[in-house]
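Standup notes
- DV: blocked on the single-chain target, sequence here:
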Amino acid sequence: MTTRAQVPIGRIVWALIRNQPVRYGVSIVIWISLWVMPVVAGFIAAAFFDSLTADAGWDISLLIALLWAYVVARIALVFAGMRLQSELLFRASAGMRAAMLRWIFSLPGARPVEETPGEIVSRFRDDVEHTIEAMDFTVDVAGSIVFAVVAIVVLYFIDPVITAVVFAPLLVVILISSRTGSTIRRYRTAARDSTEAITGFLGETLGSVQSVKVAGAEATMVQHFNQLNEVRRKMMVRDRTFTAALEAVFRNTVSIGTGLILILAAGSISTDGSGGLTLGEFSLFVYLLAGVTDAAFFLGLYLARLKQASVSSERMVGLMRGASWEDLVAGHDLTKGPAAAVHKDAPLPVDGAPLISAQGLTYHYPSSGMGIDAIDIDVPRGAFVVITGRIGSGKTTLLRTMLGLLPAEAGTVSWNGKVVEDPSVIMVPPRTAYTPQVPRLFSLTLRENLLLGQAADDDDLERAIYTATMEDDLAAMPDGLETMVGPRGVRLSGGQVQRSAAARMLVREPQLLVFDDLSSALDVDTEKMLWDRLFAGTGDATALVVSHRKPALQRADRVIVMRDGRIDAVGSVEELLQTSQEFRRLWRGSNK
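- DV (later): unblocked, structure below
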């Protein structure tokens, strides 16, 4: 299991509060008022009992009226408090989720996170809720403490000696909570990790049902799922049992303390005015004492919740590679629409310089050591450059490193003849657009998949769809651009998914089009039509393409042959057929 750096959960909670100072301020005032209001009810009850034993007392009808006024006021405050607290917690949780998502999107790399989709869902759902729970508890803890202070002052004036004993349960609860903190963290970490293992397994399995069925591995997968569930059952039972045991210890500690205090107080009751507690004072003492001991219980419970929330916070910060806890709780204004993307200005063109180039570009995957070494490549403006090579020769790695999706170990990337410090910032629309080997569509309409927030009218969409040779497919769809494509575009064919991804690129009108084996699911005629339309419709189109297909190779102005992470040869098809043995082997192997 990966070791996670501990984060200051108290400072995280405080930062979440500072993000909404007005809402939280009003909310905590309401909840403190709700906690303190029972003091009023206690005095009303005390006046009632004193009126039963004294000749002069409060009018019963007045006391009943006061009690009804108390009930109405409390109901109104509860309604206002619940509504405000719900909005407060929603904004805080949404802010953390937005912070994680923004950070993940800002990370370079074809896969910026190591966790599986199921594990990430667990961070976004469960860990956020557990952290927010710690914030939610603060209003109750604050209210119970204020109530306890007020109650203790009142109790002191009733009987200072017995009141001093009230602090004993509180001290015991704090001592128990501090001694069990490490155990709470350990049990909660094991429970969260076991839950994450199941969500991760489900996420991977449900995305690979066909592979499981083809391999005949259904029984094995179910067995593994059962094993993960058994581990989770043990971890969750241990975590919840320990938490419940702590709550029981806290509750019983204060209950036993309360009982002892009441025994002392009962011995001081006086009904004849001889100097002891009146019946009303005793009833007030009992009533307030319960609230004071509840404060001790809530404080112990909150300390345990903080330990558990720290585990969830660490997991969320761990998901945000290179981030600090401050990045997790950075405030976000959820009332505003999505901010427009802000990118650094790209270098202006230098006369005669290629649109994009790389010098000495090097990257190796940490897990395998495979990658690219010392690559030099130029893509002139208006050129159609094709990268080809065997599987594993580094074609895709080269594209991703040039675009900043993988962090280069050495070398530079230049745009318009000038080196760019961070390609991941520059190599984005409207300068470049990229379609990977396996394009991703979302469970949205086709229109939404093509735009993804891009401002474009129907004419722009029609041009992009036509260039991507998708107009006939669109005409056959029942709802046209409003057709729902399903998760990952499952309602479309492989070729339709690829051409939809191409249209998504084209509608952004980038200066450089980067295709990674776009034509793998297209027939030869459709692929040829796509290239013809692309360069016929846009006079200055520049394309960098990974392909092994003859339609792309034959149209290319320049072909780059890669082998074992290095450039093996460069030239036109005719030149390479004469000079490159590696290219001849690839050409003979391609029958399309």
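- Follow-up: The first helix runs from residue 9 to 19.
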